[in-house]
Amino acid sequence: MADDGMITSATRRVLKLGGLAGRVGASVAASQALGLLRSGPSRSARRTENLVRNAVRVVETLGELKGAAMKVGQMLSLHEGLLPPEVAEVLRTLQKQAPPVPAEVVGFEVRGAIDDFDELFASFDYDAFAAASIGQVHRGRLRDGREVAVKVQYPLIDEIVKADLDNLKTLLKRLFALFTDADFEPIWGELRAGLLAEIDYLHEAENIRRLTELHAEVPEIVIPRVVDEATARTVLTMELVEGIPAAEACSDRYPSELRDRWGVVLAELQLRGLLEHRLLHADPNLANFAFREDGSVVVYDFGCVKEVPEALARAYADAFVAVIDGRISDLPAIFAGIGLAMADGGEIPLEAIEPYIEVIAEVFRESPPYTFGEGNEAIYREIIRLGLEGWEVKRDMTFPEDVIFVNRSLSGHFGNLSRLRATGPWRALMLAYAAKA
Questions:
Q1: Distance of CA 285 to the CA centre of its chain
Q2: pTM for this structure?
Q3: Residues of the chain with CATH 3.30.200
Q4: Residue 339: burial class (beta carbons within 10 Å; 0-12, 13-18, 19+)
Q5: Which fold is adopted by the domain 103-153+200-222?
Q6: Using alpha carbons only, what angle is made at residue 99 by residues 405 and 297, rounded to the nearest 5 degrees?
Q7: Taking CA atoms, which of 109, 156, 201, 314 is between 20 and 30 Å from 278?
Q8: Does the pLDDT value for residue 222 go beyond 70?
Q9: Which ranges of 66-116 does DSSP label H, i.e. alpha helix?
């Protein structure tokens, strides 16, 4: 039975996930058997129905378990390029679930992690003002007067991860088998590594320091500083830096010129991370950003930061320049060079790429500059629609593991720019950063 708490018993979690994996596995077998008897639209409709039904099962169970299980569901929900749109939409409901932790438990956790907590903190609000799958955030004030945000992990997260990982792998492998024949191992390896990195707040603190240094000369990017003396593996303390919440920033309350500036800042953050620094903030959830009236953007949550191999950065740069230059026929070979190909080793058919390129090329037109989210066929919705239409081809593709979080981040920010309805010099920006790859 679901409740507001989090199931922490390893045995109960194994039974929950194991039972869910069994139900999804039976559904996969039934879907495959029925697929032999169907063809054409009826087969596709049946597969979509089965996908959505299993995604609902996954959401119900992962939402109840929360912790590592819920985090993996949330990570997957942002992979619009990897998942069928219907499944991503169902999994996205996990973003809204957040279990509160009682004040006495929070107090026990922070004092257990920070030895001199009482000497460091003048005040601490035990009621969280933000929460997610791995931890929740509290306001505090240090004795030197600094206002801080303190991210506190939920109790027993390490044990929960150990209880979840094997069963999550089984469950997700069976779910993936419903819609793709691609090798699941690299996908799982990337998801697992991302999850383990996110539960180590010392690792996140180091990510913050690295990205702060890289953006030292970029005033439009504001990154809260880590308070080292009040940070541990399960508690991360940062100077409190606030801004306009994302939902408010995307509204008509702010002029289009300001939203354009914010959009350009977000786009440059991505391009700089992917092509210049090769260290990418890879969690595009718009709630991870706040906005300021001077045009700057505050960046939060550095648990998911992706090291981008040089060859991959170069391939992305080459691909985007090929799109801008109209050299579409070069793309299959560029993709094959990074392992994005058909399961038999052949290049992706050009006809499978062209519909996407026609849409993406519009972003890089010279005049008038492209406005994200304009018209009835915004680029984000159109790419998702094309993904659904071309899903049969995707079943036979292989996805290199390094691409997963990069594509998640890029596609997520397409959605963010659409929400901001941002207009900008996208062509000039892409060419400038591609030259740095």
A1: 6
A2: 0.77
A3: 103-153+200-222
A4: middle
A5: Phosphorylase Kinase; domain 1 (3.30.200)
A6: 45
A7: 201
A8: yes
A9: 67-77, 85-91, 103-113
